[in-house]
Amino acid sequence: MFVKLLTISVLSGLFLTACGKVEVRKYTEVVQLPERPDASRQAPRQPQESDPMRAAPLTVEPIPSNMPDDHPTLTGEFAEASAPPTSQMIPPASGPNSMLGREGEVPPPPKATDIVWELPEGWTERAGSGMRIAEFLPDSEVEDGLVTLIALGPGAGGLEANVSRWRAQVGLPPQGESQTLQVEGKRTFTFVTFARESREAELPLTTTAAIYSLGDRTLFLKFTGPTDYVTDHKLDFLELAGSLDQQTESMP
Amino acid sequence: MKISIRHFASIKLTVFCLFWLTVLTFWGTVHQVDHGIYQAQERFFNSMFFLGFGFIPLPGAMLVMGVLFVNLMGSFLVHYQAGWRMPGLMLIHIGLIMMLLGGFFTKVTGIEATVSLFEGEGRNVAVSRTEWEISFSDELHAVQPYQAVDLSDLRKGKTFQFRDSELRFRVMEVYPHAEGITAESLQTPPTMAPESAAGFVAIQPLPKMKTPEDHTPAIRLQVEGATNAEQLILTPRDQRPMGLELEEGGGRFVMLRRKRYELPLFMELNEFRRSYYPGTEVAQDYRSLITVRLGEDISREVVIKMNEPFRLNGWTFYQQSFAVTDDNSEMSVFAVTRNFGRLVPYWATGITSLGLAMHFLQVQWMQLRRRRKRA
User: Fold this and answer.
1) For residue B316, which of B112, B90, B166, B102 has the smallest C-alpha distance?
2) Residues of A in contact with B275 (CB under 8 A)
3) N or C: which end of chain A has fewer CB within 10 A?
């Protein structure tokens, strides 16, 4: 009897599986994007006799909503995918059904190869990864003081929210009288510092930052380190911030 | 009262379960007229319980099928004493149990997704039509390892963490269908605005749609371990992954997107063709020439066309649809299903039929023998 009950319990347990744990899946996504279309691709191909694609020559311009009677019914996503031609090869994700799960690929991932700067004398530069474009060390011997250049989306949470967070990170109350200035460099940026407050509060760390709104993204050049160290290198930091620029492609 | 295996093996329970399944089938059929198939499935067939008439808790088909399975197993173990002397009855039970287990296996492991490819494009993942995930990565390369959690696993208050980072996420709100709210539309903007790539400061639930493909989920997360965010709002309206800067250095990208399924192959669309019946706008044929890569050195060309899918290791790729852009680039859309138990119902039906035939013949033979004995 025990074996019978055990068998039923195990099978019932499997049948009525209800797991409360959040499972983390891992996978590798491989995407090979098509090359840009050229004129040669536009011409209809002349099929060869042995061509497996021969049975389907191009005949008339498509009206995508027309399907044969025996074709599976298209649901919203597919119906929308078959909608009249869109204006871009890979259009922006304007909604959840916009492009069959292509959200996040368009526009392309934020790459920062168009951002340039001039390094102050004596500073060293390290390549960043992901959203961190680069890192700068005013003094290669002092790892505590680090300048990071980060690219985030437009808006990126807003200036006040970011400043409040940075203040909290160094131990200042979120709301305070940070110095905020609009500075004209190669690109106009918002300069934020609360070094004086940090010094008055005798806090070991402080932050100074330059924020750039570039339309499609927001750049944060952020200098965090020991309060005296940041104060000492403030002018060099401003020199770096003023030199930062976005290269624009010239029209042919 | 002592509950024994005999209670589970009750024939009355069998009759009640079958009767209730009939009621659910009828009720669900009527319900789907006004609410759509998806809502009917979710309410009556994919649920353990549902509220009848808005307030009476009633058992859903999942619960009834589970009870029926237990009942069938119990009945088999308790009542069936004939062993292989009645092989037909034995086969009938085995066939029915196989059918229930096959259905459950398909329900748990089955996948329905799509792959959409432009000519010259290749991918190794299919995208779910109805399921969503929060993806997590340190870069956004063409060959990119991801970690992901399914949105359907997340509830308010649940926490999760991805390997290789100290970031911790706690679910504050999650809705299967919702809309984002911007600061402008709020009378009193929140004091701490969450990070949102789409510029939302809050989310609010919406009634479910008739088709799950139209759902736009949304989630608000509390983040620990990031220097640039304490709260996140992720929605399908986000134009790009959200970047999180880690306290320990480096960064990670998170995004709410349709769930990805890794395929056992890399498929590249070489060419897509379509044709129409002459003089009409009715599609006659779509077909795609695909290069299927199974490894570094193993590849072959496959033509997938309407009603002639390509099958590989339990996965099936159907030619589903297409789209055209204004520069005449064509995108071919494939429906992808994974069903490792595809043949189980056929086997189960065959075994049950064989059992019925054997039992019928055996009973006839036994009656004939009895008559001869009497004579």
Assistant:
1) B112
2) 55-59
3) C
Say whether pTM exceeds 0.95: no
- Out of A5, A53, A70, the one facing B5 most closely (by C-beta) is A5
- Ranges A60-69, A160-169, B54-63, most confident: B54-63
* All structural domains of chain B with their residue ranges: 5-109+343-374, 116-123+264-338, 129-261
Mean pLDDT by 10 residues, chain B (375 residues): 70 91 93 80 87 88 89 80 80 86 83 88 90 89 88 93 89 93 76 78 87 87 89 85 82 91 92 81 82 83 90 89 70 87 89 95 92 87
Whether A101 sits inside 8 A of B242 (CB atoms) is no
- φ, ψ of residue A79 to 5 degrees: the values are -60, -40
Contact B250 A33 (CB under 8 A): no
What is the distance in angstroms between the Cα of A73 and the nearest Cα belonging to chain B?
9
Q: Do A121 and A242 belong together in one domain?
A: yes
**Residue A66 C-beta-side C-alpha neighbours within 13 Å:** 14
Residue ending a domain, choose from A108, A128, A149: A108
CATH number of the domain bearing residue A139: 3.40.1000.10
Which residue type occupies A88? Q
* Chain A environment of B38 (Cβ under 8 Å): none
Write down the ipTM of this complex. 0.76
Amino acid at B44: F
- pLDDT tens digits for range A8-28: 555 555 555 544 578 899 998
pLDDT on residue B353? 96
List chain B residues with CB under 8 Å of A85: 324-326
Closest CA to A240 of A143, A111, A136: A136
Check whether residue A158 and residue A217 sit in a common domain: yes
Query: What residues make up the domain containing A101?
Result: 75-108
Bridge partners (DSSP) listed for residue A25: B148
Query: Hey, are the CB atoms on B199 and A92 less than 8 Å from each other?
Result: no
Tell which wins on pLDDT, B168 or A46: B168
Helix (H) or strand (E) holding A147: strand A146-152
Contacts of A29 in chain B (CB under 8 A): 123-125, 143-144, 146, 260, 262
Are B250 and B214 a contacting pair, CB within 8 Å? no
Q: What is the pLDDT of residues A75-120, one digit of tens each?
A: 333 333 333 333 223 333 333 334 455 554 533 334 456 788 998 9
Nearest to B140 among A41, A95, A109 (CB): A109
Q: Are A146 and A225 in contact (CB under 8 A)?
A: yes
Residue B174 near residue B156 (C-beta atoms within 8 A)? yes
Q: Closest by alpha carbon to B136, among B125, B145, B128? A: B145
In this structure, the answer to whether residues A88 and A166 fall within a common structural domain is no
